[in-house]
Amino acid sequence: MRRVEHVMGFPVSLRIDDEGFPEAAVDDMFAWLREVDARFSPFKPDSEVSRLDRGELSVEDLSPELREVLDLCEDYRVATGGAFDVRLPGRGLDPCAVVKGWSVQRGAELLTAAGARRFCLNAGGDVVVSGGPWRVGVRHPEHADQLCTVLELTDGAVATSARYERGDHIIDGRTGHPATGLLSLTVVAPTLTEADSTATAAFAMGPEGVEWAAELAGCEVFAVDAERGVLRTPGFPAAGADAVPVGAA
Asked: Which one of 22, 25, 156, 206 has the fewest beta carbons within 10 angstroms of its own beta carbon?
């Protein structure tokens, strides 16, 4: 089974290799992602996040799911010394950096609970896989038609934070300025909640974030710094040598 839908501002593609998997379970997974978008998007004025940001809701009024997301955001803020912060001065509350991975991981768990054993769920380039091995390419940070590495993953998740799609959009909360010390940073972790949030948080920290992420339990890192040097943890599950040397034309 294969399906692609546009949710939360990016394409979400799903491939399931299990014979006879119920399509209703796939419907439920995509319905969950649409629900998350409606409830947690800071760009929708009637969402729970927007209402909280305007002071229309108190912490006691929040859903358990949003409390969980905000707790995760605070954990990463503290762990990065403020580099990762969803409440930047002059900006509204924006927990998207945690919501994306958290919600897609929940979607993957819905599929598993419904009986899926071998699948690949790709949400705008951040991926959850089960029942591999699966091969996942990491885009070259300067050449859209090339890969800088390919990894092999059986069960787990991979996420990349970079400057190539949205420019300098990740802010270092310690300085209030865009994080420019890295070109891209990829994290492999047991869940997409961890991989996506860690990738964004580490990118906000700059080069020091690579070592910080590498020290987290279960995380492996592949990063390209602003000087086009490659930083890779020994356990990063690369499937052979880098496909294209970083900095190559």
From this structure: 22
